[in-house]
Amino acid sequence: MQFRQQALAKLQSPEELDLPVRFARPQGWLVLSVTVVAMAAASVWAVTGSVTSTVSAPAILTHGRGSYVLQSPVAGQVTAVLAKQGQQVPAGSPVLKVRTAEGEAVVRTLDAGRVSALAATVGQIIRTGANVAAVEKVARTGDPLYATVYVPPANAASIPDDAAVDLTVQSVPTQEYGVLRGHVKSVDRSAQSPQQIAAFLGDSQLGRQFTEKGRPVAVTVRLDRSSATKSGYRWSSADGPPFKLTSMTLASGSIRLADQRPVDWLLP
Questions:
Q1: What confidence tens digit (pLDDT) does each residue in 36-87 have?
Q2: Residue 254 is inside which H or E element, if any?
Q3: Strand stretches in 52-205, DSSP E
Q4: C-beta of residue 60 within 8 angstroms of C-beta of residue 200
Q5: pLDDT exceeds cutoff 90 at 156
Q6: If you ran DSSP here, which 8-state letter would residue 225 be given?
Q7: pLDDT given for residue 263 in this prediction
Q8: What is the Cα–Cα distance from 136 to 100, expressed in whole angstroms?
Q9: What is the DSSP string of 5-26?
Q10: Greatest mean pLDDT range, 19-28, 196-205, 212-221
């Protein structure tokens, strides 16, 4: 009988129109307001803000024109080594004397530069075309250094002109002296083979090393100069290392790519 009375009461007054309706609690309005404000701020940031990204790749410090491998044009026995490693030599400078079947011959440099490596010793038997020296193409001892960063081709198109570059130099303790500063000078838009890299650096091993993960693109970096440091270049620390940098020093480069708006990621 109790349930029947409740049902009759419901039929007599199906809707309680005289009771106030509560749409939401105050806490709900607060959460909704915060959500709307956050979404509006995110939308504004997506359109007007920017995101910075970088690409890291192996690098090497060189002089701008690279190096070349000097090969012997004759076969025979080396009787004298006339050049010294690190010596600055003009074009046509004698490097080796070789005793051949026709007499004594002299192996000479092709271009002016600095002898960065010697691969022949007195008494050694060499063949025609043998690598006997590596010569870096530098006109003067004080010529500035550059960094060549070998980046993946997919990232090359995103590198803007004069992009900032941070270089971690292997021979310099980063925690103590920081990183070397520079800016992009040029980007070679074609990928390079191991042979091309070896020809530029004068080292076939480096040619293989820089192409282990595929053929890269060479990015030439102009190092920022500074008269306040011993090295002559600008570092993230105030003084930098207490010694000068030398060419053919390995490094790692971090290149700042063009800034992107977050909304561009959503657009086709």
A1: 666 665 555 444 545 568 889 999 999 878 888 899 999 999 999 999 988 8
A2: strand 249-256
A3: 54-63, 67-71, 76-81, 88-89, 94-100, 103-108, 113-118, 125-126, 131-136, 145-151, 164-169, 180-187
A4: no
A5: no
A6: B
A7: 47
A8: 28
A9: HHHHHHHHS---TTSPP----H
A10: 212-221
Angle at 171 between CA 167 and CA 172, to 5 degrees: 65
In this structure, the strands spanning 67-71 and 88-89 are unpaired
Question: What length is written for the chain?
Answer: 268
**89 pairs with which residues across the strands?**
113
d(CA 231, CA 174): 15
For 216-239, letters b (16+ CB in 10 Å) and e give bbbbbbbbeebeebebbbbbeeee
pLDDT of residue 122: 94
CA distances to 134, 192, 198 from 207, in Å: 14, 9, 4
Structure tokens at 230: 């011993």
List residues bridging with 58 in a β-sheet. 252
Question: What percent helix, strand, coil does the chain show, rounded to 5?
Answer: 25, 35, 45
Q: Please state, as a whole number, how many other Cβ atoms lie within 10 Å of the Cβ of residue 80.
A: 13
Q: Which amino acid, residue 215?
A: R
